[in-house]
Amino acid sequence: MKLFTIGFTQTSAEQFFDSLTKNKVTTLIDVRLNNSSQLSGYAKKNDLQYFLKRICNINYVHIKDLAPNKDILDQFKKQKTISWKEYEKHYLKLIQDRKIDKTISPKLFENGCLLCSEKEPHYCHRRLLAEYLNKQWGGILIKHL
Questions:
Q1: InterPro entries given for it (predicted)?
Q2: pTM score of the predicted model
Q3: SS3 sequence, 123-137?
């Protein structure tokens, strides 16, 4: 199974949609807690859903259970009271407690792409999520766009 990840920050709409099309993504899985971000106009929920279908014929789904909760995000990004390692630990426990590997069908992720705002995957929960799913299900080829 191929699973892609992508961030939209510092990426033009052309680069973003071309990358998804070139890699034959079939479903964009929005893993942001808040999908009405102002960081990039094309990445707001309703606009993004429209552009994906119209430009690339890609389905869109927003799954909040794949996002970190507000407490974890605030502690890491706003308050800066936890390190990245602690963030990882809290997020992985959260998705494990939510039993996402049992409640969401692996079929959804086949040629799917996890979307978050961070440009690079290194310090983003989309990478952690992809690696967690691979650990649980196995056989996932992860490619960061």
A1: DUF488
A2: 0.92
A3: CCHHHHHHHHHHHHH
